Each structure stands twice: as C-alpha cells, then as structure tokens.
Amino acid sequence: MDQNDPLASYRNAFHIPKEDNGKNWLYFTGNSLGLQPKSTKLAIDQELNDWAKLGVEGHFEAKNPWMPYHEFLTESMAKIVGAKPIEVVVMNTLTTNLHLLMVSFYNPTPKRCKILIESDAFPSDRYAVQTQLEFHGFDANECLVEWHPRKVETLLRIEDLEHILEEQGDEIALLLIGGINYYTGQYLDLKEIAKLGHAKGCKVGIDLAHGVGNIQPELHDSGVDFAAWCTYKYLNSGPGSLGGIFVHERYANDKTLKRFAGWWSQNKATRFNMRQPLDFTPGAEGWQLSNPPILSMAAIKASLDLFNEVGMTALRQKSLKLTAYLEFLINELNHPNINIITPSNPNERGCQLSIQVKNADKTLHKQLIENHVITDWREPDVIRCAPVPFYNSFEDVFRMVEILKNLLK
Ligand SMILES: *Cc1c(COP(=O)(O)O)cnc(C)c1O
C-alpha cells in the first residue's frame, strides 16, 4: 500500500520525531498537535528577515506584505472547509472565536434563550457556552440543553436531536455542535443538523477543531450559520497557533448582527483614515479585531501551501484507506478488552479511531508511549489514535498494532 500511495512522498515534507537511535516514533496524535512541515522554518525566517531589514516598512515592502497577510491564507482555507473566500478568515484562537461568534449568533430572548450542545462536548466549548448563558443573565443549569447518546450507547443519533428540537426547539436559540466529536471521532451530518435547527428557528454553529484538514465538511452547502476551528491539529501550524472562522455568505453584508469590533473590523478603504465611523468590512473579515500576528500566520501559510498542492480530496481518499486498515488490524486482534467506539461507517468518521480499553487504567497507554507509539489517552478509558494521511504510512499502522498486540498478551 505504501508503494502504491501517490501521497507517500509527503511524509518527507514533515519532521517526524525520532528516538535517540534515529528510529522514527509512530506518531498518531496529529489530532492533538500536527507535525511540523519542513517548510515552516523557512516561512517564519522570511518574516523575521523582512522585519530585521525593513522594520515597519515590512507592512508594505515585505516579500509577503504584512498589511494584507491574512488574505494570503483565505483562499486555501476556504477550499479546505468547502467555503467561499468571503466566508472565511484566519484570526485569534478557537475559544476566543467561539465567544465572538456567539456575540453575533446567540441573541437570547426570555422565551428563546437555550443553547444545545453534545453531552460530551469539548470542555472549552462547554465553558464558553456556560459563561455566555451566565453573561446574559441565564441559569446555565436550566438553559444548557445536552444531546446525549442513549443508555448503553456511546454515539449520538440524529433522531434524538430531532426529538429534543420537537420538544424544546422554540426555546433553543443556538445549536453549537462539534462537527467531529473529539472523544468518539463521530462525524455528524452538518447539513441535516443545520436543516433541523433552522426549521425550528435556531442558529447553528459548528466547532470544526477535529474536522478541518481531516474531512470535507462543505460548510457553504451545509447551510450552517457559522463555524470555528483551530489550525494546530490537522492543519499542522504549530502549538497554540491561530484559528479560523466561517460565517455564511448570507450574513456577508448583514449590518444588523451584533458584534464586538476593533480597527481590523473596519472597511479596508477607510481603516487608515482613523477617524471614520465604524463600517464593517464585508464577509468573515468583518469579525476581525486586531492586526494579525505574522509569525504564526507564516506557519499557517507554509502548511496551507502543502494542502493546496495535494488537495483535500486526495488526502481524504488516502485517509479512508489508512483508517480502514487500522480498523481491520485492530478487529483482527479480536481481543475481549478492546473495542472501537468510533462509527464503523467511514462516512461518519474522519481519520481518528477511539479505542476503548475495558477495565483499564492508563497503563496500556503508558506502555505504548514507552514503545514510542504516540497516541493519547482520554478519561475514562479511551485511547485515541489518528493516522494522518499527510505523514503516516501503512507501515506505521501495521507496526503500531503489532506493538499493541504484544502489550495485550
Ligand atoms: C482542540 C479543541 C479546542 C481548543 O481550543 P483553543 O481555544 O484552541 O485552546 C476547543 N474545542 C474543541 C472541540 C477542540 O477540539
């Protein structure tokens, strides 16, 4: 499979962490922190050199002028999430962006004040929603609605969301859902969620932290109102790097939405007149506040250039095979304590498989790390393993499962 893999050579475009003896780690945590493209250093050096050479003039004279720098990322990012360029911008970090977007898309009234999330939402999203509710004077216990898996099940069912919306839809202002759940790896049908939410008059927002660069969410066609994501997971842009947002085209010139603004929200034509009344720049760019951090954006640009070269369609094609291979080998182990909780339908997952270990503490995970198999552990009992099509090989997957097999003996 590696010999016939058209993307095999891209592994060399990344730094793969190594043991002291030079042997590569088996790295399966691109869902947490993607590996560093070799081109990243060059891209950051370019900006450091231009800063040294040009000082403030770099805003206009740098090889990639800093003034419009975020625009260099927009088109590639839009392609990755299936959006129009006017719908996307790279700015801030993910949780900050969720708050800013809720300023616009969570406008509660006493009758319609609730927010719906997955019961197993990522903690940052839960805290963001909880504090938004409290900020607006609502009781988070009463107004936070959870979409639960059924008893003895681990995955969410769309029928259950439908049921909640039938009962409480008129009281729900916003659905904020993880496009791919960080814990189970379940990929939800965004179009269906948008349709159900909108039918009840709710706004619909998606956290794509685990989806971007992994699956093809087709955000524009899905019809969701907004989305936000980070770029340090599957987009390989470095620890704590910036996030991206999507705001559907239908709001591109909507002046009625509430927003928090800064000078970078302002129409570009008048931004530097400095004394103009606030006039939001059209599209997602109008949600920006500050002039962007160029060093972080340079790392994003280096990574997006690779995505542009390969394209999400080719990456997803390889990803489907790579993850299917991991699933096949784990199922072959046929071990009573090991159970994959991620959906077996490839259309309902990205590259990550979440492996539930029965009656386990963290020992098995620790032993994997000792063997330089890097996966991550999520309480109470799940090992998350994400073979990434850009830099993981079929051999990586084979060797990982061999080591797991020996540890389970
Ligand atoms: C990774 C992740 C975050 C992290 O948020 P930051 O603001 O970038 O620290 C938030 N939500 C989800 C669903 C995530 O997967």
Tell me briefly what this model is.
This protein has 409 residues and is an alpha/beta fold. 36% of the residues lie in helices and 13% in strands. A 7-stranded mixed sheet has the order 2-8-7-6-5-3-4, with helices on both faces. Strands 9-10-13-12 form a 4-stranded antiparallel sheet, covered by helices on one side.
Structure notes:
- 36% of the residues lie in helices and 13% in strands.
- Strand 6 (203-207), helix 9 (219-222) and strand 7 (226-230) form a beta-alpha-beta unit.
- The longest helix is centred in the last third of the chain and has 22 residues, at 312-333.
- The chain folds into 2 domains: 8-36 and 311-408, Aspartate Aminotransferase, domain 1, CATH 3.90.1150; 70-291, Aspartate Aminotransferase, domain 2 (3-Layer(aba) Sandwich), CATH 3.40.640.
- The mean pLDDT is 96.
- With 409 residues, the chain is of the alpha/beta class.
- The strands form 3 sheets. A 7-stranded mixed β-sheet has the order 2-8-7-6-5-3-4, with helices on both faces. A 4-stranded antiparallel β-sheet has the order 9-10-13-12, with helices on one face. A two-stranded parallel ribbon has the order 1-11.
- It has helices spanning 39-54, 58-61, 71-81, 94-105, 123-135, 140-143, 158-168, 190-199, 219-222, 294-310, 312-333, 363-370, 394-408, and strands at residues 26-27, 88-91, 114-118, 144-147, 172-178, 203-207, 226-230, 243-247, 338-340, 353-357, 373-374, 376-378, 382-385.
- Bound molecules: pyridoxal-5'-phosphate.
- Pyridoxal-5'-phosphate (PLP) is lined by residues 93-95, 122, 124-125, 178, 182, 207, 209-210, 230.
